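Reopening closed ticket. The problem is back. First fold of the pair:
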Amino acid sequence: MQETVRLTMAQALVRYLGAQYIEIDGRQEPLFGGCFAIFGHGNVAGMGEALYAERERFSTWRGHNEQGMTHAAIGYAKQYRRRRMMAVTTSIGPGALNMVTAAGLAHANRLPVLLLPGDTFASRAPDPVLQQVEHYGAPSTTVNDAFVPVSRYFDRITRPEQLLASLPAAVDTLLDPVDCGPATLALPQDVQAEAYDFPRVFFEPRLRRIRQPGLDVHELAAAVATLAAADKPLIIAGGGVLYSDAADTLAQFAQTHGIPVAETQAGKGSLRADHPMNVGSIGVTGSTAANTLAAEADVIVALGTRLQDFTTGSRALYGANGPRLLAINAARFDGAKHGAQALIGDAQVALDALSSRLDGWQAASDWQERLSVARGNWLSVVARVTADDGTATPADSQVLGAVNRAAGENGTVVCAAGGLPGELHKLYQTTGPGSYHVEYGFSCMGYEVAGGLGAKMAAPAREIYVTVGDGSYLMLNSELATSVMLGYKLIVVLLDNRGYGCIHRLQEATVGVEFNNLFSGCQTAAGGAPEIDFAAHARALGCEAEWVEGISGLEAALGRAQAADRSYVIALKTDPDKATAEGGAWWDVPVAEVSERDAVTERRGAYEQNKQRQR
């Protein structure tokens, strides 16, 4: 007879997670780095008791905001390149709903996080309970149904024994190279506390490995033929390069065959910035080098990228009769985009297979010369726009240049929404995988500080540089206090341009006015918008903090921050109107077809002309 152990559903869940391991570079490590938790009446008695019982073997981390701690969990997984992850538990109602935005972020970025929101009673005996949203015609519906469209796997556990099937399926989803994303198990609070005789074998340690999908021989042969016939190929490196641990393989492949490599936001850092084949960022926030070569290429290899609109210039970057597109991707869904020729499989496996079959082949010599010249010209632009010109209110590019210089070989820059990701994508000189951590699949304001915390937890030996605008900081800053509480130091560079500078510039480009973005264009009381003392606020959260002026002041403060023993916030005023003019490509943002203002009518005409270029 099978040996069993009697546990509550919550106890079984936590014990199972603690028994999962992953192999990383020949070492066995726990798959889960623990569980972020904010307790409430929907999870404190069940999950809280279970986590307490396992506290010596399975860490519980306390956050200050449910969205923030979920961002931290996602940042942890991203910095680990999807090889380790976290769970997150919340109470029912508002606690659970606060996680939905973060679930959308994880889904868009294909990042693993196990979400464990509390739920209302499965028995419905005390309904309606505190924080329960009642649907009169659908009594089984709860707020947790909002997770369905932003989860890769979703289940509501209404009996303890359902864990036996659902929990392994959730973990398998988190580790799957194709379906990776958030897995959600909604946990009714009464079921969390119910006991069941679970098979002991369910809790035996299990070593996990991430699958590397192989290649179809016919697709591989066709891909070899396409590349062998190319004179001017270009590779676009996406996040799949990093997640398949293929960065070194790509560097060798590009060097051997003389192929320039451009990078997406998720793929930036696949090659070191000083690699001779690296031509920088691609697309809307792309370098002049990469975008020019993309327009001239005869074959573009989309390697591990989902070809988002910023990557393709809203499908207008390559032109109606542009290059042949070869998509190498673990996901069939992504490989079929834009009418591409597909090679479905792992990026590293594909590069190895292609290289062995392309022995002796290289891109045309004049194309390689073109690569070198374009790269050199772009690096000159980078040096110029990131240099200190002595202004008291510098441009974002100059601030990021100072951060880049301070970060050196062992720094990691973290960012998310607004104008900063675009400048970072164009200008930041990476030192390889792990040095660049920008969330731009969801472009979620508020990710920066919390994501930085998760990155630091994943890579404690690295100095983490969080770059954040005043708008994002005001949206979500509470995990600064968590970083101090847990002893995970962040260096936060806060650029105060008195509003939403990125959207201000987009509004000027599409509407021709300033309205409701900068504080100067908003409705305010007679005294105007407040002057926010961000340094004082950060000190109130337990950080060291200071205001500085200009790049020289920032550079001196960065030295003090590096020497500090806790999170350090540096705030400075920046110019909301300045952005790097060089590089970039068109982005499809519809302009009003009818307006009383000539400025809008003119912009609509330019918009319609650009629409004609869409592939």
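Second fold of the pair, where the issue appears:
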Amino acid sequence: MASEIVQQNYTAKNINVLKGLEAVRKRPAMYIGDVGIRGLHHLINEVVDNSIDEALAGFNDVIDIKINKDGSVTVEDKGRGIPVDIHPVEKVSALQVVMTVLHAGGKFDKDTYKVSGGLHGVGISVVNALSEWLQVEVRKNEKVYFQEYRRGVPVEKVKEIGTVKAGVSGTKITFMPDSEIFTTTKFIFEIVSERMRELAYLNKSVKISVKDEIENEFEEFHFVGGIVEFVKYLNESRETIHNPIYIEGEKDNTIVEVAFQYSTAYSENVSSYVNNINTHEGGTHLTGFRAALTRTLNNYAVKNKLVKDPKKLALTGDDFKEGLTAIISVKVPEPQFEGQTKTKLGNSEVKSIVETIVGEKLSEFLEENPAYGKKILEKCLRAAEAREAARRARELVRRKNALDTLHLPGKLADCSITDPEHSEIYIVEGDSAGGSAKQGRDRRFQAILPLRGKILNVEKAKLNKILESEEIKALISAIGAGIGLEFDAEKTRYGKIIIMTDADVDGSHIRTLILTFFYRYMKDLITNGKVFIAQPPLYKIKRGKLEQYAFDEVERENILKEIKKDKSVEYNEDGSIKGIVIQRYKGLGEMNPEQLWETTMNPETRTVLQVNLESAATADKIFETLMGDDVEPRRNFIEKHAKYANIDV
């Protein structure tokens, strides 16, 4: 890291206090987003953020994460160790202050951390408050210090429990998430490892390991090439047209790193980060990069006469997006975040810093490597030609009124409420299920759009071809917010868009095709939390007049166990329960309208999964792997994840 190494003496006086921890257990979602899978894994991220901040300051190069057999998690680093001396204001160990007071830490002291990702977080005290128990071990001053907490309350004072060699330091935290708070306390290895892989790419000096002692899985991440290797990883399934271009620079204590590469793909995959935080909504750093890329490549094209007739076919910023994979990572001393999810950088000065550094360095690179410039411009010119073809196709479609919200598709059964906040649309697989859904719905706020068969795989098609697909035109028209660069999430006709497909292989494929279309051409639907996946039951269990539904194998077995507790139950010779009928639903069409409403569409009783975007870069790679042209990465993905599949035989 090119920034100034900050002070070595990290003591209690560096710990500033912003009080207020009492509400964390009462309103945990305010601090970690939710109390489901996402919020649970956020606990690990909060602990790891502290270790990464030590790395950014130049004092740590190893982070080890372990999911223990009892379900707890251990995070260990080799940083300076949390201060343990007495805090001058709080009059207790600074370690206890950090662990029990919200927003207490060295992040608020400019001399301790020049840049920090933890500024965007809520602090390790929240992890402590939401844990059944937490143990912290600090190696510092040739001694080992220890303290234990129960639901955020210290069991005893900080104590010495051993010694270490001179120069050895670090922090080890083990916590058990509180089952009274979270709907699930099971950590998922892949969710943890994906975030750690991302952090390792962004911090090339750090080696991060993840071990799951329950599932017996292990991964270690250390990428000396940093974000250049990140770009290569994201483009594994694509045919690239040049090696990644890497740019770095520093100005006014802001460090800029950019790596980008073009491929033959039609989609764009650009991810931006500020102090390791994934800025899903972009911001001034992304704006600066785009401005520099457009201006520099345009100037290069004109200077080298690579555009034959600029008046007939002028290159725009959109033409430089097609096939672009890029990582923009900036380290900013005092980032200001804005936007709906607080993941949009607002510092105005960062735009000019990024634009200047990228513009100057890219111009130099292209002058020294003319072959790169020629290949990139050839790609962008083809994109411009496709853009013109798509424009003509859109105009043709508009003339046919397919994109006009006043002319909705005939197959759409619309709802009577026009307020998007109080209405929802079900995208249903097939006419049979569509018929049941239309009869079973609440017509006031629920619209139904049945789709026939599998829609076009947009990963392999240009926009002008996509606009020729009748099913996709029906989707565009029903949602009513445009497509691609013209898409405006504010114009969406429904507050919830729910994908409802069969619980079989074909249904999963159709769901993936629809999600691919949304991700590529209506991404704001996902980032704004408007896309959901319906969860129809897999089984109906009937005993006499009693009917119960099971959404998976585990729930089915639990229902059967409860039935067996009834002493009046009679059994067949083979041990099965007499008079019980178990129906396995192969498709939505097998349910009558009343059953579909009761199990899958009634907001009071249904379960729907919200589609979110934790990492745009990872999501892009998965879509490209599953839906792209390259077979080998898809085969590897299927083999690796086969154990999670639910396949009907």
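Update: turned out to be a display glitch only; the data is intact. The longest strand covers residues 131-140. DSSP finds 18 helices and 24 strands in the chain. Please close again.
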